[in-house]
C-alpha cells in the first residue's frame, strides 16, 4: 500500500503529514532523525491505549526512545483543566527536559489536550500527532489548533502550536465505531462545501465505498482533505481570514454541543447539523438556492449523520451560546456561509431573526 507524504509549509515550523496503512510499526524509525531528545511522553486514552499503545511503545523503544505513558479517561467531557493537569504532572514528575516530546495517540480530544500541554510545558516542547479517528486525521491533527473546553464554551482556552510530524495510519480506522467514523465524515464533507465542488461530487458518488472503509478510497479521502487543510493553514495559520472557512457549521455546531452537554452530541454531529443550518441561512440570504441546501442535507444523511438539532433548546438558547464563539467580533456573531458548492465566505451583521429562522428550520419537531 502506498505511503503518501504531504508537507505543510510554515517556514521553520514546516512539517510532514504521513498517510498510509500500518505506519504505527515504523513510528520510532520515522521520529528518530526528527527528534533530538530521547524522552517521549505518550498521551492516550482508556479506549485507544489497549488497542494501539503496546505497538507504539515497542516501535519507540526499538528506536532508542524512553517513554512515559499517560492514559486519560475517554470523552469530550474530560477535555478540561483538571485532566490537562494530569499531563503536566506526569511530565514534571518524570523530570522531562526541554528536548522531550509529547506524542498524542488518539482522536481529537487527546490531540487537542496534548498539543496544549506541549505548548505550555517548559514554554514549549516537541509535539507529535498520531491521530486515530477519521475526524482527527482529516482535520484536528493538522494545523496546530490545540486547547480545552470551558463549561461555557467549546475550545475557548488554547494555543496555536504546530506538531513536528503527523503520522496517520489508515488501519486504525478499522476499529473506530460507525458513529465516530460518521462524525469524521462531517469534516470531510465540509471541505467539499467550502473548497472543492468536484470533491463534493466524489463524496456523493462514493459514500457507500467510504462507509465500507475501502483502503484506497480512504487514502484518497485523507490525502485530499489534508491537502486542502495544508493549503489553507499555510496561507493563514492564525485565522485572520481564509482559515475561518474551516469553521463552516461550527458556530451552530459548538452551540449544539455545549447546550446538549459535552459528549452527548459528537463534534462532527454538531458540525453536520450546523452546516445544514448554515446552508439554510445562506439560502435565506439569497446566497444559494434550496436545491443546494437539499444536496448538502442528503450527503450528510447518506453519511449516517443527524440532520436536525434536539428540540429542547430554543433559538434564543442557541443565540446566547453562539455569542460566546471565538469568532464573535465587536459583539457580533460571525458565520461562514456557502454560496454554490465549493465556495464560502465569512459574514457578520446577519439579523438574529434570520439566524433563528435557520435554526428553527432544522430543529426536531
Ligand atoms: P475523540 O477524540 O473523542 O474520539 C472519538 C472516540 O473514538 C473516542 O471514544 C475515542 O476513544 C475513540 N477512538 C479513537 N481512536 C479510535 C480507534 N482507532 N479505534 C477505536 N476507537 C477509537 O473525538 P474526535 O472525533 O476524534 O475529535 C473531536 C475533538 O476534536 C473535539 O474535541 C473537537 O473540538 C476537536 N477538534 C479539533 C480540531 C483542531 O483543529 N484542533 C478540529 C476539529 C475538531
Ligand atoms: N478545524 C478548524 C481549523 O483547524 O481551523
Write the layout of secondary structure elements.
Layout: E1 4-8, E2 15-20, H1 27-31, E3 39-45, H2 49-62, E4 66-72, H3 81-93, E5 101-106, H4 108-120, E6 126-131, H5 134-140, E7 145-150, E8 153-160, E9 165-169, H6 178-195, H7 197-211, H8 215-235, H9 250-260, H10 267-284, H11 290-302, H12 315-322, E10 335-338, E11 344-347, H13 352-361
Parallel strand pairs: 2-9, 3-4, 3-5, 5-6, 6-9
Antiparallel strand pairs: 1-2, 7-8, 10-11
Helix pairs in contact: 3-4, 5-6, 5-8, 6-7, 6-10, 9-10, 9-12, 10-11, 10-13, 12-13
Bound molecules: nicotinamide-adenine-dinucleotide and glycine (GLY).
Residues 139, 143, 145, 243, 246-247 line the site of glycine.
What can you see in these coordinates?
There is one protein chain. The protein has two domains: 4-175, Rossmann fold (3-Layer(aba) Sandwich); 178-361, Dehydroquinate synthase-like, alpha domain (Up-down Bundle), CATH 1.20.1090.10. 45% of the residues lie in helices and 18% in strands. It contains 13 helices and eleven strands. It has a seven-stranded mixed β-sheet with strand order 1-2-9-6-5-3-4, sandwiched between helices. A two-stranded antiparallel sheet has the order 7-8. Strand 5, helix 4 (108-120) and strand 6 (126-131) form a beta-alpha-beta unit. Helix 9 crosses helix 10 (267-284). The chain starts with a strand and ends with a helix. The model has no long low-confidence stretch (mean pLDDT 95). The structure holds nicotinamide-adenine-dinucleotide and glycine. The site of glycine has 6 residues, from loops. Nicotinamide-adenine-dinucleotide is lined by residues 45, 47-48, 51, 74, 76, 79, 106-110, 112, 132-133, 135-136, 139-140, 143, 145, 154-155, 172, 175-176, 180, 183, 267-268.
Amino acid at each position: 500500500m502506498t505511503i503518501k507524504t504531504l508537507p505543510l509549509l510554515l517556514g521553520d515550523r514546516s512539517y510532514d503529514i504521513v498517510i498510509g496503512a500500518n505506519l504505527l510499526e515504523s513510528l520510532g524509525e520515522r521520529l528518530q532523525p526528527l527528534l533530538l531528545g530521547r524522552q517521549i511522553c505518550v498521551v492516550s486514552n482508556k479506549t485507544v491505549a489497549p488497542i494501539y499503545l503496546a505497538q507504539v511503545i515497542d516501535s519507540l523503544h526499538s528506536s532508542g526512545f524512553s517513554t512515559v505513558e499517560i492514559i486519560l479517561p475517554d470523552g469530550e467531557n474530560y477535555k478540561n483543566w483538571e485532566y490537562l493537569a494530569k499531563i503536566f504532572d506526569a511530565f514534571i514528575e518524570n523530570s522531562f527536559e526541554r528536548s522531550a516530546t509529547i506524542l498524542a495517540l488518539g482522536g481529537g480530544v487527546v490531540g487537542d489536550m496534548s498539543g496544549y500541554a506541549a505548548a505550555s510545558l517548559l514554554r514549549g516542547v516537541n509535539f507529535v500527532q498520531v491521530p486515530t479517528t477519521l475526524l482527527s486525521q482529516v482535520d484536528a491533527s493538522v494545523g496546530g489548533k490545540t486547547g480545552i473546553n470551558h463549561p461555557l464554551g467549546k475550545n475557548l482556552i488554547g494555543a496555536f502550536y504546530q506538531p513536528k510530524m503527523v503520522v496517520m495510519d489508515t488501519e486504525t480506522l478499522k476499529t473506530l465505531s460507525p458513529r465516530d467514523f460518521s462524525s469524521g465524515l462531517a469534516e470531510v464533507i465540509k471541505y467539499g462545501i467550502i473548497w472543492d465542488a468536484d470533491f463534493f461530487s466524489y463524496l456523493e458518488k462514493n459514500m457507500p465505498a467510504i462507509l465500507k472503509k475501502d483502503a484506497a478510497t480512504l487514502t484518497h479521502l485523507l490525502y485530499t482533505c489534508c491537502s486542502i487543510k495544508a493549503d489553507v493553514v499555510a496561507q493563514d495559520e492564525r485565522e485572520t481570514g481564509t482559515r475561518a472557512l474551516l469553521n463552516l457549521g461550527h458556530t451552530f455546531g459548538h452551540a449544539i454541543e455545549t447546550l446538549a452537554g459535552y459528549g452527548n452530541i459528537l463534534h462532527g454531529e454538531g458540525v453536520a447539523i450546523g452546516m445544514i443550518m448554515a446552508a439554510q441561512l445562506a439560502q435565506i440570504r439569497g446566497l444559494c438556492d434550496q436545491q443546494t441546501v437539499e444536496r448538502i442535507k442528503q450527503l450528510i444523511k447518506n453519511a449516517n449523520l443527524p440532520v436536525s438539532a434536539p428540540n429542547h433548546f430554543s433559538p434564543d438558547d442557541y443565540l446566547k451560546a453562539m455569542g460566546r464563539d471565538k469568532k464573535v467580533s465587536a459583539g457580533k456573531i460571525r458565520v461562514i456561509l456557502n454560496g454554490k458548492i465549493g465556495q464560502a465566505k465569512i459574514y457578520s451583521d446577519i439579523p438574529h431573526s434570520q439566524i433563528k429562522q435557520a435554526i428553527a428550520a432544522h430543529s426536531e419537531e
